Amino acid sequence: MKKPRLYSGMQPSADSLQIGNYIGALLQWRQLQTSYDAFFSVVDLHALTQPNNPEELREKTRRTAAQYIAAGIEPSQSTLYVQSHVRAHAELAWVLSTITGYGEAGRMTQFKDKSARYGTDSTSVGLFTYPVLMAADILLYQSDVVPVGDDQKQHVELTRDLAERFNKRFGEAFTVPIPVIQKDTARIYDLQNPTSKMSKSAESDAGVLWMLDDPAKSAKKIMRAVTDNEGVVRFDRENKPGVSNLLTIYAALTGRQIATIEDEYAGRGYGDFKKGLAEVVVAEFEPVRGRALELLDDPAELDRILAANAARADAVADATLADVYEKVGLLRRV
Q1: Has 114 been annotated as catalytic?
Q2: Average pLDDT score over residue span 105-117
Q3: What is the CATH T-level fold of the domain 205-293, as seen in this structure?
Q4: Is the dihedral of CA 275, 277, 281, 286 positive or negative?
């Protein structure tokens, strides 16, 4: 039987992905690739909406792709490619932008937040049309499902609206995708500020667990993570955000229930608990880090893998784009 199609991706916006990316996306992707025809992209075109050094962007793109593979995304099983290697992404985004309302795009929460923060003179048109490019990413591959976090759900809803609008106006061209939202328990918070989501843009590096960090450095960050004065390992997101965050990480990486971890550390205090978590994190990330660095030591082979996967993506994307061009009335080149 033909597998349903899945699409997802992440920006190459840092030298290393962090544990929130690993738990919130990569672990899920690794599992889903066995039951879906999965397309996973390093969305470097999206990264252009932020200031970038060209050489650093190229390096971050390779590093992100290497971490996908090291975390278990298998290039022979999934289609793992770089967004800009498939030109149909940008071309379809233009077509979709012509059926997207100005007010519709302006209501996107992320755009409103960032434009309010930085001002209109520092906010690019690319940031405004970011959700339209994301819609093109998804619709090119006739995606049935899109695994995303809560913060991207609105963008997938816009994608659905655009697919339905195009299909009604020009004829059936797109599968209307369904968002698969991560559970709240998968959200990882900053180790030093456990009421804020862990992020590459955190004020302090001490609060972020990077996948490519030296294991000793990761363990040190965990041992210094903010907790509270109660001394009891107990999940309570509102009153004990630091401990609850550490419990979430522990449970996500081991597959255990939080209650069983609470029982294991009953009466033992935070020192033992943090030491146990540090051992779990190091055991999980050490082989991933090693494999990623191995891939990065041979950039020519990594580029070959990405090129082969981009060719597979091209075959699907070009068929969709050709159908779209025909339906909107563009003259075919002979």
Answers
A1: yes
A2: 76
A3: Tyrosyl-Transfer RNA Synthetase (1.10.240)
A4: positive
The CATH architecture assigned to 5-186+298-328 reads 3-Layer(aba) Sandwich (3.40)
Active-site choice (153, 200, 275, 327): 200
Q: Is 200 a catalytic residue?
A: yes
In whole angstroms, what is the distance from residue 66 CA to residue 215 CA? Answer: 18
Residue corresponding to tokens 């990413």: 137
Residue of 114, 221, 240, 274 with catalytic role: 114
- Whether 197 sits among the annotated catalytic residues: the reply is yes
Report in angstroms the alpha-carbon separations of 210 from 21, 48, 80, 200.
9, 22, 22, 9
Range(s) within the chain of domains with CATH label 3.40.50.620:
5-186+298-328
Contact 14, 153 (CB under 8 A): no
Does the pLDDT value for residue 183 go beyond 80?
Answer: no
205 to 18, 151, 188, 281, 291: CA distances (angstroms): 11, 23, 15, 17, 23
The model's pLDDT over 224-270, given as tens digits with 9 standing for 90+, comes to 999 999 999 999 999 999 999 999 999 999 999 999 999 999 999 99
Instruction: Report phi then psi at 319, rounded to 5.
Output: -65, -40
pTM as predicted: 0.92
Dihedral sign from CA coordinates of 269, 272, 274, 276? negative
Segment 6-19, tens digit of pLDDT? 999 999 989 999 99
Question: Any idea which residue has 């020192």 for tokens?
Answer: 271
Whether residue 55 has pLDDT greater than 80: yes
